[in-house]
Amino acid sequence: MSKLSVTRLTSARIPTEYGELQLCYYANTADHKDHLAFYLGNINQAEDVLVRVHSECFTGDVMKSRRCDCGEQLDRSLQLISNEGRGVVIYLRQEGRGIGLLQKIKSYNLQDAGHDTVDANLMLGHLADERDYTVAARILEDLGVKSIRLMTNNPDKINALEDEGIKVNGRVELECAITPDNERYLTTKAERMNHILKLGNYVPVLSVSGKHEPQPTD
């Protein structure tokens, strides 16, 4: 287990469409990034808390880009937490699987030239995934969470948190819509990064924009 430590510098009440969340700002001993946590309900000393460990994605979270499923996963996680009345989202500032926004944009250009997300990162001199979840584990400990149900499709994230001493009692899948813009991205996640995704048959439906876009059939 890592010796990395976190410090909650401040927190504030944030009313949202998902409920009144508490937003916490964390410093840590590993980097100078402003990692965040926002939670709903009573989570101190709680078991089986619904948790999403979400890596920052400016293009998906803010711009609602269809190249990835990040923004949709974040929204879905908050909806599930709202429905349950309790839960945590940890927002880690590790854009682009840890390579940063500049390199992610360069990776997008390589993807448009025909390479998948893994090969694009490798061509830029990075690992396929450079993210680390140690800060997330320390934040969960600081919040007093005893055990969690993790909202993720990524088994490696579960393993990483368990290696840091977090008790993961279950996985909640986050299935998102398949579109022509993200189909290859999702396929690469499943085939090359061991993500648990349903990528079976899907049929085209008419979207709000009037374009035909595929959606999962199950």
Structure description:
- The chain has 218 residues and is an alpha/beta fold.
- It has two domains: 6-94 and 131-175, 3-Layer(aba) Sandwich (Rossmann fold); 177-218, no CATH class.
- It contains seven helices and nine strands.
- The chain has helices at residues 58-62, 70-84, 101-112, 117-123, 134-143, 155-163, 183-192; strands at residues 6-16, 19-28, 35-40, 49-55, 87-92, 148-151, 168-172, 202-206, 212-216.
- The strands form two sheets. A seven-stranded mixed β-sheet has the order 1-2-3-5-4-6-7, with helices on both faces. Strands 8-9 form a two-stranded antiparallel ribbon.
- The chain is globular and about 50 Å long.
- The termini are far apart.
- Residues 201-218 have low confidence and may be disordered.
Category from helices, strands and their pairing:
alpha/beta
| N-to-C series of helices and strands | EEEEHHEHHHEHEHEE
Query: What share of residues is helical?
Result: 25-40%
Q: How far from one another are the termini?
A: 39 Å
Number of strands: 9
Q: Uncertain runs with pLDDT below 50, 5 residues or more?
A: 201-218
Rounded average pLDDT: 89
Question: What kind of oligomer do you see?
Answer: single chain
SS field, number of helical segments = 7
- Would you tell me which CATH topology of the largest domain applies? Rossmann fold
CATH first level of the largest domain: which class?
Alpha Beta
**Domain module tally:** 2
Provide the spatial order of strands within the biggest beta sheet: 1-2-3-5-4-6-7
CATH architecture of the largest domain: 3-Layer(aba) Sandwich
Question: How big a fraction of the residues is strand?
Answer: 25-35%
Instruction: Tell the overall outline.
Output: globular
* Rg for CA atoms: 18 Å
